[in-house]
Design brief:
This protein has helices at 2-25, 57-69, 79-95; strands at residues 30-35, 38-45, 50-55, 99-108, 111-118. It has one domain (2-118). By secondary structure, it is of the alpha+beta class. It is globular and about 35 Å long. It comes from Paracoccus nototheniae.
Length: 119
Amino acid sequence: MKLITLAMVAALAGCGGINYAMEHYSGVDVQQFASGGTTYRIFDKPDENRLMITPTLGNAAAAGAIQGGTLGISGSPLGPQGEYRLASQAFLDARRQGCKVTDGSKILHPQYEFFYACE
């Protein structure tokens, strides 16, 4: 019974992340951006000073295979949010001069949202 409850909670959490992404980023043009040897898809909303970042579909599948093959212990020493935060800041440095990432959180792995402030 505990396993079923845990599976239901995980499924609902995933749905919440998908719903959040759709509600806040639907219709936003995707931009490809390479940073640290990885290509990301970035959904930037400069009017709200927020963006969502996720690896390209091919990179996400490859990362999932690597993580599965290493029993989930692979990854950046910064942790996933740190890696995405660095890539988001690199995007801002390249596209929106004077902007700095201020806060962020995971929407649904591997999608992260970051807020930023601009001078």
